[in-house]
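ping. complex inputs:
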Amino acid sequence: MTTMTTTELWCDRCGESATATAHPACASARQLEPPRFCPHCRRRMKVQVLPVGWSAVCVEHGEIRG
Amino acid sequence: MPEILDQARTQVLGDGVGLDQAGVLAVLNLPDEHLPAALQLAHDVRMRWCGPEVEVEGIVSLKTGGCPEDCHFCSQSGLFTSPVRSVWLDIPSLVEAAKQTAATGATEFCIVAAVRGPDARLMKQMREGVAAIKAEVDIQVAASLGMLSKEQVDDLVDMGVHRYNHNLETCRSYFPNVVTTHSWEERWETLRMVRDSGMEVCCGGILGLGETVEQRAEFAAQLAELNPHEVPLNFLNPRPGTPLGDRPVVEGKDALRAIAAFRLAMPRTILRYAGGREITLGDLGTRDGLLGGINAVIVGNYLTTLGRPATADLELLDELKMPVKALSATL
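pong. complex structure:
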C-alpha cells in the first residue's frame, strides 16, 4: 500500500523542482496568479479563475481552491 | 503649461472634442513634470463629460485555453507552451460567478471565451447561461467571444447581451507583430456588425506589447474613430510561455500618461481599468489613474490571473467620493 505524501516537490507556478532551489520570483508572482502545476506530481492542473477565488484540479491529487 | 494642454483645455474640456493623433502623441511625450497637470485635465474632462460615477464590472472565463489563435500576449493560445489548460465553466458555476460579481455592486458581468469565434456548442452554452443569469441575478450581461458572423451577432442581441467586447489590442500598423492568425481588419468587421446591431461596443487593447509611443497615439486615434461605448485599457502582464513573456512591464508614469492621453482623445467614453494595472501601477498608481481620466474598473479576478480584492477598489472609490454607477443608470 502506498501512502500519499503532502510534501511539495514541484513549484506550482513554473513546474520545476521545489526542493532543488528556491523560487522567490514564482512566490511573488503567485500573489496574483493561481497555481498551474500540481505541487505533488507536476501535472498541469485544470484551473478555473472566478471573480472571487479559483479552483485547480489535478487528475491524480484532486481539487484545491483559493 | 505646455501648449498641448492649453489646446486640450479649450478643445476637449470646453467643447468635448477629442485630441487627434498628433495631439495624443504630444501628451504621450510630455515630460514628467507636466504629468500631474495632464492627469488633472483628463480628470476634469472625465468629470465634465462623463460625471463622477464609476462603472464596476466583473469578468469570467466561460471557456479557458486551447485557443487556435496566436495573440502573442495571451496565455490561452493553444499554440504556445503556456501552462494554461483548456477548461469549460458549467452553467451553475457561471450563475454563481454572476452572483459574486453583483454582490460587489457591479452592474456589468462579462462572459469571455478563448476562441477565434464561437461555434454552435459555445453559442448554446451562452444562450443557456445568459438565460440562467437573467433569471437569478440583477446584472447587465456582456460577452466577448471573438469574431462573429452576422447571425451570431443577431443571436447575442436576442439573448439580451447588451454590450460586446472585441479588443483591437493595438494599432493597425503594429497588429501583425502581435497576431498573425487573423487581421486587424477582421476584428474591425466584427465591431462594425456589433455597432450596427445596436449592442454597445466595447473595444480597447493592451499597452506594452512593444509598440512605439507613436503607435500608441495611432491606436488612440483609431479607437476614437471607432467611438466605442467603452474602452478597456490593459497593461501587458507578461505571461510565461508566450512570445511576449519576457517583455518588461509598462513604466507607471508611461501608463498614467497613456490614461490621460486616451481620455483626452475620447472625452465621453467609459475608460476602464482592466488587466495588468496591479503590476504596472500598484495601489498608488491605481488611485492616480482614477484621478486622471479612468471612470470604470474591472473588480476581482481576471480570466487567468488574479486582481485586487473587490473591496480594496470599492473602498478606494468611496474614499475618492466616486459613486458606483447604479444598475438603473445603465438601463
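Chain B touches chain A at residues 58-61, 64, 83-87, 89, 93, 96-97, 100-101, 104, 240, 278-279, 299-307, 310 (CB under 8 Å).
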